[in-house]
Specification:
The chain is built from 14 helices and twelve strands. It is an alpha/beta fold and 399 residues long. Helix 1 packs across helix 14, helix 3 packs across helix 5 and helix 8 packs across helix 12. It comes from Streptomyces lanatus.
């Protein structure tokens, strides 16, 4: 089957689909990934065909308010819809749609007469179990959580309204609002598979039929891939280090974060590996190493703890490695994942990015590394995650 996976966003929004695509390719399917040019190499390294989608303005996200995120997203998705239409050729038989691309892909599927399957990385359907991931982790009660979930969907509909109008006009389809299309999908019980672990978020019992949690889709790592020699040398030179990284977050905060990292590590008496990332962290010393991009799957199992921004993919990778975390959420859905990690005992209480200090980080690191309960909880979750096969669940859904 010729399958197009469409996704847009930051690295954490794209990388899981390289592993999913590679697994589907190994099962005999012809896989193309449509995403922004920044991730072309990720796609091609996984042996998948790449097609370009428009780049989001300010793609390397710093610390943005929710209002700013909404405004930039609305401008982006209108361009994204036109680029997505160009990426779908006549041979495409199935669209696998991320949460970002689903509200555009449904209209393309209607126009071309092809199937769709939702492959989402966040639990964005309303539920009484928890509030929407973009509204923070605090529960509003079952009725309040569901109401907030519906409100979040209506906000998303507004973001996509102009894009949908433009796309349907280009496709020669009659006018239809995003909310009307979403209700159509719901009535038809269109399937959506969620690529995260039930160790973190069990499937809500009040979700409709067709919504399932299938396990994490792990970013593709080539079988021959190894850690750089300088990393291996550092790992061999002493006790297990702590990893500190913020992914593509916190642009412009590199100097502040570098100082906090070094001071916290030395105050806690720990060695550290600091990832430069979007913030541009840079530290020097015998007890700390600055690195660029390395696969989490290779590095995290060899660390004592992971300090991260609590993006869905990084949070899952630390948990899979069975090591405790110190979450420092920055924006968007990160407070949600940070709180889920803490709730299962695999992480310390989150430290909001704006409140991060060397003293708070040192205290959290000391507890994460030296109190065995955190590592035990992470190990339990890791064993649970090992029983899940997100790729196989997608294959079964293909029929």
């Amino acid at each position: 089957m010729r399958i197009l996976i469409a996704a847009a966003g930051s690295r954490g929004d794209i990388a899981p689909y390289t592993g999913l695509g590679a697994g589907l390719r190994e099962a005999g399917h012809d896989i193309t990934v449509a995403t922004t040019d920044a991730f072309a190499s990720l796609v091609r390294e996984a042996g998948l065909e790449f097609r370009s989608l428009p780049t989001r303005p300010g793609a390397q996200r710093g610390v943005e308010s929710r209002r700013e995120l909404m405004r930039t997203a609305a401008a982006f998705v209108t361009e994204l819809g036109q680029g997505f239409a160009d990426a779908v050729d006549d041979g495409t038989e199935l669209l696998l749609l991320s949460a970002t691309t689903a509200q555009l892909g449904w209209h393309l599927a209607e126009s071309r007469g092809i199937r769709t399957l939702g492959v989402h990385l966040q639990p964005n359907a309303p539920t009484g179990d928890f509030p929407p991931t973009v509204m923070g982790p605090r529960s509003l009660g079952r009725l309040g959580n569901r109401a907030a979930g519906r409100l979040a969907l209506r906000m998303a509909d507004r973001v996509y309204a102009e894009a949908v109008t433009s796309l349907r006009h280009r496709l020669g389809l009659p006018p239809l609002t995003p909310s009307a299309m979403r209700r159509r999908q719901k009535r038809a019980n269109r399937p959506v598979l969620h690529g995260f672990s039930t160790a973190l978020v069990p499937r809500p019992s009040d979700w409709r039929e067709g919504l399932d949690v299938v396990g994490t889709w792990w970013p593709y790592v080539a079988p021959e891939r190894r850690l750089p020699a300088e990393v291996e040398d550092f790992l061999a030179a002493g006790a297990r280090p702590v990893f500190i990284g913020f992914g593509s977050m916190a642009a412009g905060h590199g100097e502040r974060l570098s100082g906090i990292a070094v001071e916290a590590l030395r105050s806690a008496g720990l060695r550290g590996i600091v990832q430069s990332g979007g913030a541009g962290l840079a530290v020097d010393g015998d007890d700390v190493l600055t690195i660029g991009d390395v696969p989490h799957a290779l590095l995290f199992p060899r660390t004592a703890a992971v300090v991260h921004h609590a993006g869905a993919g990084t949070a899952a990778a630390a948990l899979r490695a069975g090591v405790p975390a110190v979450p420092v959420p920055v924006t968007a859905d990160q407070p949600f994942w940070a709180r889920r990690l803490a709730a299962i005992g695999a992480a310390t209480d989150p430290i909001p990015f704006a409140s991060l200090t060397a003293e708070r980080l040192a205290d959290a690191l000391g507890r994460a590394v030296r109190q065995e309960a955190y590592a035990r909880a992470a190990s339990v979750a890791a064993r649970h995650m090992a029983t899940e096969d997100g790729v196989d669940a997608v294959l079964k859904a293909l029929g």
